[in-house]
Amino acid sequence: MKKKYRLVYFGSPEFSLPPLKTLYLGGYDIVGVYSQEPKKKSRGMKKIPTPVHQWAESQLLPFFTPNKLDEVSLKKFQALKPDIAVLFAYGKIIPATWLNVPLYGFINIHASLLPKWRGAAPVQRAIENGDKSTGITIMKMNEMLDEGPIIASREISITNDTNGQSLINQISNDSCSLLFNNLEKYLSGKISLVEQDNSSSSYASKIKKSETKIIWSLTAAELNQKIRAFYPYPSMWFTHQGLRYKILKANVSNLVGEPGKVISKPLTIACKRGSLDILEIQPEAKKPMTIEQFLLGNNSFSIGTNLLDD
Question: What's the whole-number average pLDDT of the chain?
């Protein structure tokens, strides 16, 4: 690296940490780290900083957790005199007035192959949709939602074992080399940006609570894609005898029956087409457990039980 570029990083969750660590170890001058403000969590309602915030603080890096990206925050950002800003899952929309502050603008790590799955939930929507692949796109940000020109991209396969957690972990890890190998080229003008084809775009809308209730009249394949997509959060769930149960892992079975009925042991539930073998479950107010552990203390799911009655 010829010049020690002044870099500001925007990120919040655990999976946005690896690229920041890579840039830090790779010699970039991290002059500021932005993260969402600490949120109240756990029974004590103690405010817990985000993983990115905690790491930045541990490394004695300047960190900022503004509640709003207003004029006061903008002046502090301008004072950092950044050459480049990198964003990955920050959780706030960057105002247009911020985008041109860094000499080379903002670049974003996006968890899909743009222009497919622009928006808030690209990882989950790709799995839910039954896509065979997705990927990572590094793009220069503009004022539109995920519509900026592409710097680099990498494809990632989606298998029948892929879930939301495993896919975002792979994207997080793979984005480190993709970002590091292309950022210097971008900063030195050695990359020709590629405009997105808006005609082939799709939108990954934010997940609504109403989507996460299991509808047994869907096919087993459709439900299994949702279970994998929404793991570990927000998770797919159903109710039985007044209690809520999250299904964390299942397999598609060829057994058939009336949708919503338990049709086989240990716990196979019929759907519109096919059925689901439940492998991992989380009863309300309890920890996740295997289906064998769960059934040791629960006899209310005998064959013939109709979950549509709940």
Answer: 96
Each residue of 207-263: pLDDT tens digit? 999 999 999 999 999 999 999 999 999 999 999 999 999 999 999 999 999 999 999
Q: Is the pLDDT of residue 3 over 90?
A: no
* Residue 253, C-beta contacts closer than 8 angstroms, at least 6 positions apart: 220, 264, 268, 274, 275, 276, 277
Q: How far apart are CA 12 and CA 50, in angstroms?
A: 6
- The full DSSP string for 127-195 is HHTT-SEEEEEEEE--SSTT-SPEEEEEEEE--TT--HHHHHHHHHHHHHHHHHHHHHHHHTT----B-
* Rounded distance between C-alpha atoms, residue 55 and residue 16, angstroms: 11
Task: Report which secondary-structure segment, H or E, holds 290.
Answer: strand 289-290
Instruction: Please provide residue 198's backbone torsions phi and psi, each rounded to the nearest 5 degrees.
Output: -65, -25
